[in-house]
User: Which sequence fits this backbone?
């Protein structure tokens, strides 16, 4: 290290060389746009590779139960929500269990997320494995359900986004990391989509996914 870098480290700063900064930035950009990069051909390659080690789940699901396009939509949504898809076998098992009950993409996504709950929450856990979360008051959650179903005031959504942003900012100052927002499974997908533009780094989890956490701090 040169004297300037050494002085910076002694003051508690993290020193990174330009190459590391560039690689980190490119990785963040790719993760942010991964959903746009997954084509049907990519999904077919993933399924072909998985079929060599777990043929039963692939044969059960494709093409008789779900189409390649439906699986692509599920994987793209997971990536858009920054959920890793490395556990593809477990994701497909979740889809196979859910499909007989309903094939709507939001339902399939929730089933996939719950099947890999540990992987979903792992990036948000602290060094000790504890997960810091924010929750909505019951009356707020009830009003949100009414709003997204078309029976509540639309202005409420804007106020809610502002309130969540303010609470998240306070939590970051107190904890040093951004907490996740936890809501009912029926709300999670819609709320995550609503918040994505205003708060792209805020993760929205469902209560059904918290079982994968060692400890939850609300």
Assistant:
């Amino acid at each position: 290290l040169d004297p300037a870098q050494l002085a910076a480290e002694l003051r508690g700063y993290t020193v990174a060389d330009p190459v590391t900064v560039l690689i980190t930035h490119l990785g963040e950009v790719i993760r942010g746009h991964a959903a746009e990069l997954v084509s049907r051909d990519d999904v077919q390659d993933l399924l072909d590779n998985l079929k060599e080690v777990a043929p039963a789940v692939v044969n059960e699901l494709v093409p008789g139960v779900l189409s390649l396009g439906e699986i692509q939509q599920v994987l793209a949504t997971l990536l858009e929500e920054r959920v890793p898809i490395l556990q593809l076998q477990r994701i497909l098992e979740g889809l196979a269990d859910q499909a007989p009950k309903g094939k709507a993409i939001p339902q399939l996504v929730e089933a996939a997320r719950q099947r890999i709950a540990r992987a979903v929450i792992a990036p948000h856990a602290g060094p000790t494995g504890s997960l810091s979360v924010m929750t909505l008051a019951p009356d707020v959650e009830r009003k949100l359900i009414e709003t997204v179903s078309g029976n509540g005031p639309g202005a409420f959504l804007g106020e809610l986004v502002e309130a969540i942003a303010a609470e998240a900012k306070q939590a970051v100052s107190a904890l040093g990391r951004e907490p996740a927002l936890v809501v009912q499974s029926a709300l999670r997908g819609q709320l995550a989509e609503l918040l994505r533009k205003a708060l792209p780094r805020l993760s929205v989890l469902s209560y059904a996914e918290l079982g994968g956490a060692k400890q939850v701090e609300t």
Q: What stands out?
A: The longest helix spans residues 155-175. The radius of gyration is 20 Å. The beta strands are 130-135, 180-183, 204-206, 215-217.
